[in-house]
Amino acid sequence: MLKKLLKKLSIAVLVTVVVTLCWCLSYLLPYLTAPEQPTAELVVNDITRLNPIKVAKVLRPQTEAELVQQLMNSSGAVSVGGGRYSQGGQIALSDSLHIDMRSYNNIVSFTPDKKQITVQAGITWRDIQAHIDGYDLSVKTMQSYADFTVGGSLSVNAHGRYIGEGPLINSVLAIRLLLADGNVVSATPETNSELFFAAIGGYGAMGIILEASLQLTDNSRVQRQVTTMAASQYRNFFQSQIRENAQVVFHNAVLYPPNYNQMAAVS
């Protein structure tokens, strides 16, 4: 009799333990299972690699028709990226259709005698300079790095290093812009001027810049000079030796860590 009782108790305890374990596992399983990781091609990051953003789809268009079709078939958010040098998560939006413009990078036309070139927005300034160098021409607004895309630089209206030349918009003759409704419009400082001035520096809010016509300039050799000084001396140095000096083409100054009280003025 005692043996039968112990057997029944053992079975009851075993069943209780199994049920308890099953319940515990069902509760803990979501925490024990690793979350699904997005595939690498759906994660967009900037040049720092500090701002990964998961998007719904990445499009790398090579034709205008493909770009228009994909845009019109999309019902959600759209983000646009170029060289990915804009930092802090500016180049993409979560769960968006991300348009990577770097394959949209052809030279559309080039007229050396007029010193003008029309390019697709995904081309880099380095590629433009390589193409026009044999004609002894140069881009008119030289930035600090040549790996930026034209579309990205226009979208932020990047400044150059020239003394007195102002931002990039001053060298832009015209742009072609893809609007949210699928229409493609041309804009210049005189025609569709509101779109022209809103799109350049507009971070893509007005539409996708497809092409840009740029004014070029003559190429010339420059000599690099570096002057080191205390940061407190720079203001007087710039006013007296740089601001009105016709011999200075480019200029920038670099502050050095850790205390940022020493600097190098590069001309």
The CATH architecture of the domain at 103-218 is 2-Layer Sandwich
Q: What is the CATH class designation of the domain at 103-218?
A: Alpha Beta
User: What is the CATH topology assignment of the domain at 103-218?
Assistant: Uridine Diphospho-n-acetylenolpyruvylglucosamine Reductase, domain 3
- Global Rg: 29 Å
Nearest-integer average pLDDT: 87
What is the string of helix and strand elements? HEEEHEEEEHEHEEHEEHEE
- The shape, in one word, is globular
Unreliable runs: 27-37
Strand content: 15-25%
User: What is the distance, rounded to the nearest whole angstrom, between the alpha carbons of the first and last residues?
Assistant: 103 Å
The helix-and-strand class reads alpha+beta
Query: What's the story with the biggest beta sheet?
Result: 6 strands, antiparallel
Count of individual beta strands:
14
Structure annotation, total helices: 6
Task: Summarize the amount of helix as a percent range.
Answer: 25-40%
